[in-house]
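Convert to structure. Protein one:
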Amino acid sequence: MALSRKPVGRAFDKRAILRDHPIFGGLGPELLDQLSSYAVRRAVKRGTSIFAKGDPGTSLLAVCSGTVKISAPSASGRRVLFNLMTEGAIFGEVALLDGLPRTADATAITDCELMVIERRNFVPLVHERPDFALKLIEVLCGRLRHATEQLEDVMFLDLPRRLAKTLLQLAKSSRPAPHGRRIALTQRHLSEMVGVSRESTNKQLRMWQQEHWVQLERGGIVIVAPDALTAVASTID
């Protein structure tokens, strides 16, 4: 994992990040202090592989800033993008908890600041705090539901509906732009999420751009008419 260490400055408060996190925030001051003492800050450059499928699962990671993609190659050689991890998200918890190899690749698609907690420091806390273990189970259940929904979409929805649904989901956590909400994601990454070629994704997006529903930009897509995309996503056969 090609990660670089940086001195912890005033702008990076490990305890504050843990305190404000939906999973770690309920641990109480003493345990927060203990966990933050274990956490290590890592700076990751855009395009860096954080871990690969099959690597030992020795740590849990939290995104402090930036975006990480979780993906894996398909049997045909096409890459499938399972999830995007943005600020506040944790990843790597499956292999961390069961001690087995990583189930997917994690790659920084922007410059990222991560917080890393090693398995040897993390697992004892799960044993000591059942409430904390339940929070982790909630995270895992959420990931399972998301994966199941993705599989159903690929099997049952055509490209326009899959693409519209994915764009609307991504827009929820995106930043406002002058004419809508901007999703900082390339068309290649978007095509990996919906399970089609980049060419097919680009063709559909350009059709929507002509309708003034989206605006295509370098490295991003602006959602101009979310109601129109909602109508597409909710279309019934």
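Protein two, convert as well:
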Amino acid sequence: MLQKGPAKKVTIYVNEDTQYHMASLYEAILTFLLHKGIGGATATRAMAGFGAHQSMRTTKIELLSEHLPVRIEFVESAARVEEVLPTLYDMVADGLIEVQDTIVVKQASTERKKVEPRREHMVKESKAKLMRVFMGEADRWHGEPLYEAILKRLRMMDIAGGTVYRGILGYGAKGHTHKQSFLHLSRDLPVMIFVVDTEEKIEQAAEAVEEMIGDGLIVLSDEYMIRLVHNQPVAEAPDAKLPTG
């Protein structure tokens, strides 16, 4: 049972159309976590992003909408995370797995099943920086959406990857509430950009974004990155696999 106190948060980035044994990879990951007794996991679909392959993905291009990044996140004890990570390494052939320290403030009540011993696995680990940029969907930069302009700037700076998420409810420094409903489709929903890279590159990226953003927020934090680097081609979708966070 997950206890209150120190824990690990695991975030996995894959492409929506990536397959694993004739099924969607993100669904296979959720099924694996469920069978291993992980208390809970959530998959969210991004609205735009680019990754190591430097291909822009956006919901505005119908043919590419199925290539959008999917973010899977769960929280568990450090020991449980060590137990499931080796299999996750094998399942994610092209993508990114991020592990960071967190604090559980409310105890989970689900019982855990016995798990198999951890298998040895070689991974590439390094310190990194996470940049979060918060803005409104209606914000513009030289006639185009600000979040798209920021992604283009990051790609030109050779940033490893960035992902855009649209919120469903939020408010900012001005105190205005932005939400989406069936009767009113807000054109200024909150938008968040997540970017992970080395400390040097993130600091450069933060300076560039600061010049572009008006009303908004830029947050930097230290991260510990576990990145999967596979040289063999991916059979399901050679050009597509994704991002960051």
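Residues 173-186, 232-242 have pLDDT under 50 and may be disordered. The helical segments are 25-35, 78-91, 146-156, 199-212.
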